[in-house]
């Protein structure tokens, strides 16, 4: 009977301590922060509790359970009862461990509310918040260690804390259960606690950044920042301080001039806190945790330190940027504001007031940093001096020329700043200041005289005396910039060393002019860049709206009358895109000069109505080839060639050169350049380009550079996720680039503005539209142009009335295009039979040509994609479903055209390479010819039409292309003799080529669509051509070659006279299409498919081809001077680079 009673008691005890899987609903966070959702609270935890009370409660409950089990164990039970008790204890430990870790992370995410900005008693440059963070982490780690089975004394010893002793009364059984010896914790416990420990640290970092950019009143709910007044979160702070050594801290206060309501103060304190975390707090906590839990956290520690470094850089750069902007404004106004005539200025007698104003602004910064976080003084002033040196270089670089007095005055200003701030001049800043001397020297203009050298030396001696007097007069005002150093010779307030010698930098200030001729340098404003940068994370999809956004921005700038160009940067090692697979990279776009580029350049040409060259596409291969060629020629004079500065300088030089090349019929240099920087931040391939753009923003100046960030915001279960965007902007800032504009959906703009540190007006609210042609109007409505005009000061660029009128006309035409597109109801259906239909980007230009032509014909385009290999006989047995679907699409083209006049069809066979799918294309061409279905063959499609006609009409059995069947008995398509068979890259017949219509071809539909012209120009990309030996046989049967090359040897246009529209072009007319001026060949194809070809031919009598700029003969890639074929362009007043 005793055994039955014991068994019943064990059953009741097990039931009492059963750990249910149901949960409490957590209380929502009090503030609208972006931290992750609060995890559910287990039922055995009080619903209203924090991490501290949670630990106390669970330790007490576990202690009671262990005591009960120990008492029963003394009865020496056997069988199922004993085993059940053991399992119950193990299950309780694990569930309690989960609960502690959950509460740990949950409270860590809102721990930032305890930041009252009180100084640490031992180090006033940081806040007491860090002491609270360390205590919180230790307390939870000790509690987790004890729940897992470790002793309290051992945990305190390993974690370096005695704060948990207050809870000993709640854990007597726990403390004695292991005889206070070290234990090996189960692996699952180690992993669980380690994850919570790291998550807590990351949550603290999130909180640090959050409070730095948030008003203290909003975070603390009325707690006075720095005054110790309790608010609605005071109770929370007290509760979380229980047992962690945080109670009773003395409010030492800060100096009265430090007001943490000022965001600059908060940023400085946060940067100081991050520095202390990186150097002291985190290493100590990590070491203690690894010792207690016997884990190796090497990789996790490195990642954590990297995050701290990135946050530190973001915050510090933000502070420096704001402060440097204030001082930069003073310097630019003083140098370029017109108060000084640098050419006619008299000899200097004192430093100009604007220099004093700039230095006094730095004094205020020094005072603010010293009172807030004194260890940051040297770092802050060093960074500011670097920024201001670059500003001064840019400002003096914009001065057209200096006379003797102006040259001496500018030298006095720079040297005064140099010596006053000498303790904070880094090597980089020193190099920039020396560049200013060089810039002034190059712009120094004076008619040479026999005594020029002696006169200049005499003037420089007088300049030294003026400098010494100015330094002596301001010694006290700028005393704060001096920093005692025992290793350095004492320097007097006059700028002299203790031995009486003049500062060595002043002795290096000299200017030379070349004997026998004037020294006159004409300087203009540097290019004004506007950079498009997409920095996707690994989770993002390709091209998230980047191309239409960049192109639409350029179009809007053209509507204002600006000349716009574009550059695409691709960080792959290929020289160009010519040898890339279309199914991996998309379409290879061919330019007038024969350049094979990324398809984005086609987008720019279509939207901007410009003609770009191969140099508008920059690749890593091109840059490295240029640098290596320079090194081989000895241009670097024996220096060690490195990525920085030689590769980055080559990138910047390339951009500046190409940005000034005319790209339209005006023949004038562009005023805005759009740069699309591809790749992913953090990739090795794109690192040199990101660094080059970072340097470039200083090279051209703040007012000449704007960065627009386009990022994907994925939708998961209907919720927009902004973390990829936040992370990409964070990484981008860590690399030195700060976005000026961010494009995102409307619902997340405020969130991104808050957590990515961009103003609301800098976040463009965009949404999906029915057509990409609406994007320019959408961006204009969001204020993009207004922002850019203000940001880049575009209103200073002169535009005559004619250009403004053309811009207004362009906007009107674009609005009409979009409105007309939305009102299209009748459809035209096109069957596209291709080899690369798995990636529709392979035919981007073809699709755009069809769209432009269908809009011109008043039809809504519908494309049916057919994989050419699915039409071949083998597919009927291997892929019967795909075979029948493909043939149904092809065969119903004629039926649709007959039965439904408002819906029509045509068959298009585009270009391609290789034998795969060619028999299917031949079958499609045969169907179109026999059934009188409109057909257009482009490049390979042209050759397919010839092969099909030769086989089935001419009777040449086995006729084929030498590319596809080397042993064919009738090679109607052959390899062109002058093209290399071994080197594939850039060796095809490429670029803009003429086509001459033959005599007596006035009937030609293609010729009529081109306005009846005798000669047309289209771009080519092919290696094979029609065999001249078969031309007469083919033409005798009715397929006429109406267009040939300038020598009449190459067949370039083929047509059937007795067909509604059966045409083939060896060229690629899709590369020259424009939304407002469609390609004539495609326009005729769509018109024939829609049954309106005669009307369109009538309209095309007034057709005017796109006006093209004059292209250079050789590529600019290897040109280094005008003698080598480079286009020489006069500098423009302002150039904006996007």
TrEMBL record:
One GO CC term on file: cytoplasm
Biased composition (Low complexity): 160-177
Start and end residues of each stretch annotated as Disordered: 158-177
CDD domains, sorted: CTPS_N, GATase1_CTP_Synthase
Enzyme class: ligase
InterPro entries: Class_I_gatase-like (IPR029062), CTP_synthase (IPR004468), CTP_synthase_N (IPR017456), EXOC2/Sec5_N_dom (IPR039481), GATASE (IPR017926), GATase1_CTP_Synthase (IPR033828), P-loop_NTPase (IPR027417)
UniProt keyword terms in alphabetical order: ATP-binding, Glutamine amidotransferase, Ligase, Nucleotide-binding, Pyrimidine biosynthesis, Signal, Transport
Stretches assigned to the CTP synthase N-terminal domain: 547-794
Origin: domain of life: Eukaryota
Pathway: Pyrimidine metabolism; CTP biosynthesis via de novo pathway; CTP from UDP: step 2/2
Keyword field contains Nucleus: no
Domain Exocyst complex component EXOC2/Sec5 N-terminal stretches: 1-481
Annotated signal peptide: 1-22
Record-annotated Glutamine amidotransferase domain positions: 839-1086
EC number from the UniProt entry: 6.3.4.2
Known catalytic reactions: UTP + L-glutamine + ATP + H2O = CTP + L-glutamate + ADP + phosphate + 2 H(+)
Alphabetized GO MF terms: ATP binding; CTP synthase activity; identical protein binding
An individual GO BP term: pyrimidine nucleobase biosynthetic process
Protein role: Catalyzes the ATP-dependent amination of UTP to CTP with either L-glutamine or ammonia as the source of nitrogen.
Family in the record: Belongs to the CTP synthase family.
Name assigned to this protein: CTP synthase
Lineage: Eukaryota, Fungi, Dikarya, Basidiomycota, Pucciniomycotina
Gene that specifies this protein: SPOSA6832_00273
């Amino acid at each position: 009977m005793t055994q039955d009673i014991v068994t019943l008691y064990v059953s009741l005890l097990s039931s009492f301590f059963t750990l249910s899987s149901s949960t409490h609903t957590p209380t929502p966070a009090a503030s609208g922060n972006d931290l992750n959702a609060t995890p559910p609270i287990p039922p055995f935890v009080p619903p209203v509790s924090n991490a501290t009370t949670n630990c106390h409660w669970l330790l007490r409950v576990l202690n009671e359970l262990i005591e009960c089990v120990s008492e029963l164990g003394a009865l020496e039970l056997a069988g199922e009862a004993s085993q059940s008790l053991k399992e119950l204890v193990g299950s309780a430990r694990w569930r309690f461990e989960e609960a502690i870790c959950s509460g740990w992370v949950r409270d860590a995410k809102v721990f930032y509310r305890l930041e009252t900005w009180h100084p640490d008693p031992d180090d006033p440059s940081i806040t007491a918040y860090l002491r609270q963070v360390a205590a919180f982490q230790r307390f939870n780690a000790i509690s987790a260690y004890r729940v897992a089975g470790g002793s309290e004394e051992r945990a305190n010893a390993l974690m370096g804390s005695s704060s948990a002793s207050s809870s000993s009364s709640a854990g007597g059984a726990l403390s004695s259960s292991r005889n206070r010896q070290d234990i090996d914790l189960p692996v699952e416990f180690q992993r669980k606690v380690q994850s919570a420990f790291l998550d807590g640290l990351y949550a603290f970092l999130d909180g640090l950044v959050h409070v730095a950019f948030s008003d203290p009143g909003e975070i603390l709910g009325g707690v006075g920042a720095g005054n110790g007044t309790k608010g609605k979160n005071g109770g929370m702070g007290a509760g979380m301080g229980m047992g962690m050594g945080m109670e009773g801290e003395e409010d030492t206060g800060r100096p009265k001039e430090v007001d943490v309501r000022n965001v600059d103060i908060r940023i400085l304190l946060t940067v100081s806190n991050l520095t202390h975390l990186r150097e002291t707090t985190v290493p100590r906590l990590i070491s203690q945790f690894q010792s207690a839990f016997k884990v190796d956290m090497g990789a996790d520690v490195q990642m954590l330190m990297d995050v701290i470094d990135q946050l530190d850089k973001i915050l510090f750069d933000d502070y420096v940027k704001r402060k440097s902007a204030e001082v930069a404004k003073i310097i630019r106004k003083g140098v370029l504001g017109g108060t000084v005539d640098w050419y006619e200025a008299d000899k200097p007698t004192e430093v100009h007031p604007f220099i004093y104003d700039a230095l006094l602004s730095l004094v205020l910064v020094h005072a603010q940093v010293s009172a807030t976080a004194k260890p940051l003084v040297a770092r802050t002033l060093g960074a500011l001096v670097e920024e201001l040196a670059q500003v001064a270089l840019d400002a003096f670089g914009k001065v057209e020329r200096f006379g003797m007095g102006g040259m001496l005055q500018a030298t006095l200003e720079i040297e005064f700043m140099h010596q006053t701030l000498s303790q904070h001049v880094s090597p980089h800043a020193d190099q920039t200041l020396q560049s200013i001397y060089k810039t002034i020297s190059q712009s120094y203009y004076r008619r040479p005289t026999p005594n020029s050298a002696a006169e200049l030396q005499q003037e420089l001696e007088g300049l030294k005396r003026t400098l010494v007097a100015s330094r002596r007069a301001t010694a006290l005002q700028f005393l704060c910039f001096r920093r005692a150093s025992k290793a350095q010779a004492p320097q007097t307030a006059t700028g002299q060393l203790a031995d009486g010698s003049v500062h060595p930098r002043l002795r290096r200030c000299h200017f030379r002019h070349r004997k026998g001729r004037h020294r006159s340098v004409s300087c203009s404003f540097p290019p004004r860049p506007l950079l498009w940068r997409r920095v996707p994370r690994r989770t993002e999809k390709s091209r998230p709206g980047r191309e239409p956004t960049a192109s639409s921005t350029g179009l809007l700038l053209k509507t204002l009358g600006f000349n716009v160009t574009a550059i695409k940067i691709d960080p792959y090692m290929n020289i160009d895109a010519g040898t890339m697979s279309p199914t991996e990279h998309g379409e290879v776009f061919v330019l007038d000069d024969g350049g094979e580029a990324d398809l984005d350049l086609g987008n720019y040409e279509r939207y901007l109505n410009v003609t770009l060259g191969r140099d508008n596409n920059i690749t890593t291969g091109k840059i490295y080839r240029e640098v290596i060629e320079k090194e081989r020629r000895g241009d670097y004079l024996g220096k060690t060639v490195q990525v920085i500065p030689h590769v980055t300088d080559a990138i910047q030089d390339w951009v500046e050169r190409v940005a000034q090349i005319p790209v339209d019929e005006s023949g004038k240099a562009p005023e805005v350049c759009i740069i699309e920087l591809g790749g992913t931040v953090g990739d090795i391939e794109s690192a040199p380009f990101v660094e080059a753009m970072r340097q470039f923003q200083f090279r051209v100046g703040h007012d000449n550079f704007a960065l627009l960030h386009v990022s994907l915001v994925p939708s998961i279960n209907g919720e927009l996720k902004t973390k990829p965007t936040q992370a990409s902007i964070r990484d981008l800032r860590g690399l030195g680039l700060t976005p000026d504009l961010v494009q995102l959906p409307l619902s997340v703009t405020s969130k991104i503005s808050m957590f990515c540190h961009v103003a609301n007006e800098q976040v463009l609210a965009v949404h999906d539209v029915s057509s990409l042609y609406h994007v320019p109007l959408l961006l204009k409505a969001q204020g993009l142009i207004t922002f850019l005009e203000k940001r880049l000061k575009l209103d200073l660029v002169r535009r005559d009335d004619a250009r403004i009128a053309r811009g207004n006309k362009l906007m009107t035409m674009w609005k009409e295009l979009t409105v007309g597109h939305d009102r299209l109801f009748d459809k035209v259906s096109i069957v596209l039979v291709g080899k690369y239909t798995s990636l529709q980007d392979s035919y981007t230009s073809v699709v755009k040509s069809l769209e432009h032509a269908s809009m011109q014909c008043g039809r809504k385009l519908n494309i049916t994609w057919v994989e050419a290999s699915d039409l071949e006989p083998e597919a009927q047995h291997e892929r019967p479903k795909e075979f029948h679907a493909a043939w149904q699409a092809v065969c119903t083209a004629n039926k649709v055209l007959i039965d439904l006049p408002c819906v029509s069809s045509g068959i298009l066979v585009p270009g391609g390479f290789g034998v795969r799918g060619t028999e299917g294309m031949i079958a499609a061409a045969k169907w179109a010819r026999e059934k009188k279905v409109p057909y257009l063959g482009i490049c390979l499609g042209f050759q397919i039409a010839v092969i099909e006609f030769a086989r089935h009409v001419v009777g040449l059995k086995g006729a084929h292309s030498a590319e596809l069947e080397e042993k064919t008995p009738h090679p109607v398509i052959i390899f062109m003799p002058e093209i290399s068979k071994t080197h594939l890259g850039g060796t095809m017949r490429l670029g803009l080529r003429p086509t001459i219509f033959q005599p007596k071809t006035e009937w030609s539909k293609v010729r009529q669509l081109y306005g009846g012209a005798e000669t047309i120009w289209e771009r080519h990309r092919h290696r094979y051509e029609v065999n001249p030996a078969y031309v007469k046989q083919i033409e005798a049967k009715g397929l006429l070659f109406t267009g040939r090359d300038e020598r009449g040897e190459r067949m370039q246009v083929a047509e059937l006279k007795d067909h509604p529209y059966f045409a083939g072009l060896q060229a690629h007319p899709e590369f020259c299409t424009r939304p407002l001026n469609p390609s004539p060949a495609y326009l005729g194809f769509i018109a024939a498919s829609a049954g309106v070809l005669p009307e369109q031919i009538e309209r095309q009598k007034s057709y005017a081809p796109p006006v093209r700029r004059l292209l250079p003969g050789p590529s600019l890639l290897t040109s280094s001077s005008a003698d080598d074929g480079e286009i020489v362009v006069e500098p423009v007043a302002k150039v904006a680079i996007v």
